[in-house]
Amino acid sequence: MAVVLDSYVKRCAAALEEFAGQEACGALGIRDNVRGLLGTLARIDAVVSHEERRRVLSSRVDAWVVLLKDVMYEVDDVLDVCAAEGAKILADDHPPAPKVRCAFMFSCFRYSGPQKFHHEIGFTIRDIDIRLREIEDEMPPLPAAGASPRPGARRDWFNSEMSRSCHDDVVKPRAAVGTQVQKSLGGLVPRLLREGKKKVDVFAIVGAVGIGKTTLAREIFTDERMTENFPICVWVKMSKDLSEAAFLKKIIAGAGVNAGDTENKEELLGLLSSALSKRYLNLDGTQLSDLPSSVGFLVNLQTLSLEGCQRLQKLPWSISELQELRCLCLEGTSLRYVPKGVGELKHLNHLSGLIIGQDNNDPEGCDLIHLRAMSELRYLQIERLDRATSGASALANKPFLKVLHLSEQAALIEEEENEEEQENQEGAEKEEKDKHEVKSAQWIRDDSAKVSEKIWNELTPPNSVEKLVIKNYQGRKFPNWMAGPKLNTSFPALAFLDLDNCMSCTTLPALGRLKQLKSLEISNADSIVAIGSEFLGTTVISQAISFPKLEVLKLRNMKNLEDWSLSVEESQILLPCLKSLHIQFCPKLKALPEGLKDAALCDLHVEGAHCLTEIKDLPKLSDELYLKDNRALLRISNLPALKSLTIDDCAKLKHVSGLDMLQHLRLVFPPSTETYYFEELVIFWNIAFPRWLELLIRLQANGLRRFELQCALPLLRSCLEGGKNWHVVQQIPEVRITSTDGKKYIRYNKARRIYETNAQCEEKST
């Protein structure tokens, strides 16, 4: 722990020395006080840094360490307050007015004028200096040369620290721990410290009573790596009856701030922001309608999250004063624009929900040009690119950018909205108006497409991007940086690509050339009628493998897609790593491509493909086939490795064969289909299973382990013991049948001799 303390003392001393040389320190009139404190801190640092002192402090219980650590936290707090107050004084040509209390400004000092504040902060610094000198005098002497620490001595500061910060949350002193706890500790701590895509990581430690869950949590909490990276750590004991307000108050108390009697969530969040030294402010999902300009005084703020604040329409200009800001989250707000001063936040590494421009072309809104200085960005989400004036060099000088979301406003489709009105019009007037509206709409789309293509062609994302999302693109051709033989050179690290609502594009880029691509999702591409070899990038002779690392492919809501071909030469390899394929709501798709037969698919999901008549010849499909609402599907055949099959509302299915390894079968028969579902099916008491199902179960008698059925009551009752379909049910080791409304059921397990139902009595009474 002394090593951690040594690092913390050095950091405080460096921050204090930097502040002493700033204008804010002179404006407050406390430079001499700061220098005096710095001298005392330097002497203590020299002693703590001594190697022999480190060994002594690490080997025995020493209240001196606890006292010094407390004072170091106070030094850190005072520096934050001084920085904020000094910035306010420098921002104004006149002395600061009395403070107005608001949810975003908290201070350790209240004053009626600058002189009173100068005296108060001066006294506080001198008081800290005196306490440090007293601690210095009480410092234990160094042992004589060759002396060894007292046998059995150990650190036991954890319990005393936690009793002060958490009050009623008692944590037992550290004891010996087992090898399993140490192993888990070594795995969890690095995961907690790593930088990931999530802003907050949550880890749950679960298990039976007495296996060491609390011990492991305590070891993580007290680990030196955690205390080095997290200046404020709070241990909170949860209970089932703990309210959200009480939970927040426990965290605030653990961080050293008294929350008083307030139960208001927004006030508590503000107090928590203060407790975290004004470095973190999360207002996600609140009813906030206006962010006050005083937020600009939080000069140490590093994270400001406003996600889901649907009433928030404007940001203050003072947001540009938050020069230490690393993370700004604006997604899900009702902002009309973002001030161009955001471009001055050079240290931002996460920026989401950035709205470009302004509806009336007012220069106050942030444009792409204002992003040039943000060279440290890792995550960038841009919206309303349709309002950009220029895209040139906007994404240049961003060597660390990993995740990029680009979006325009969705094109408005007025045809359906005007359909009812048009039906009420008659004669030549209606026809003439229709022609005029069609021409006007076409001109608007043409202009939008040209403007969109120009802006997007100028963007040129950096080659460091690993995830790219393109949404609501209005151009007819994808941007130049997504086309041509150099696509892989432009995106050598791209692993995740999502193309959503690119409704005017008629062809797809040669995405098969992306060597690192693992996940590809294409949705709402209404103008694409066919997918062919251009998608694979096979026109390049040297390209031997298409999609060499692609694992997940999803095609969704492509309402005009009819043909999909994956034809390749014998010397070429196609989709060698594909594991999951989802085809959803492609109503005109006629067939699956033959090229899929060589793909080592684990799961295939086909839904809403109303022109698809058969699924066949997928010898490597292994884990699951999920079929739903495919109205023309007639045949399923030659899937010899398939283990699980789900069929939901495929009304015309008549043939199922070649499923040699099938273990799990799940069927869903919606009530509306039972009047016409199968040729041999008659509703009510003469109801029967389809022939293909009886044949499949007979052929798979030794392999099928589980059968699930969801259906209307007549079919369910036919499966009761002694019913028309009982001879089919009793052959299967495990059966679960439920009614459509979920109220009635049959449960059967052959090996365990279990037969349960709540439909028997009703059936007899009828």
TrEMBL record:
Statement: the UniProt record of this protein carries the keyword Coiled coil: yes
Q: Which GO terms are recorded in the biological process aspect for this UniProt protein?
A: defense response; response to other organism
Describe the location of the Disease resistance R13L4/SHOC-2-like LRR domain by residue ranges: 270-587
**Domain NB-ARC stretches:** 185-269
Q: Residue limits of the Disease resistance N-terminal domain? A: 10-87
Query: This protein's superkingdom?
Result: Eukaryota
- Presence of keyword Iron-sulfur: no
* A GO term for molecular function: ADP binding
For this protein, the record's InterPro entries field holds: LRR_dom_sf, LRR_R13L4/SHOC2-like, NB-ARC, P-loop_NTPase, Rx_N
The family database entries (SUPFAM superfamilies) matched by this protein are listed as: L domain-like, P-loop containing nucleoside triphosphate hydrolases
Pfam assignment, any one? LRR_14
Q: Which residues lie in Acidic residues bias regions?
A: 413-426
For this UniProt record, the keywords arranged alphabetically read as follows: Coiled coil, Leucine-rich repeat, Nucleotide-binding, Plant defense, Repeat
Q: Where is the composition biased (Basic and acidic residues)?
A: 427-441
Where is region (Disordered) located?
Answer: 413-441
Family of the protein in this entry: Belongs to the disease resistance NB-LRR family.
PANTHER family to which the protein is assigned, alphabetical? LEUCINE-RICH REPEAT-CONTAINING PROTEIN 57 (PTHR47186), NB-ARC DOMAIN-CONTAINING PROTEIN (PTHR47186:SF49)
Q: What is this protein called?
A: Uncharacterized protein
The opening ranks of the lineage are: Eukaryota, Viridiplantae, Streptophyta, Embryophyta, Tracheophyta
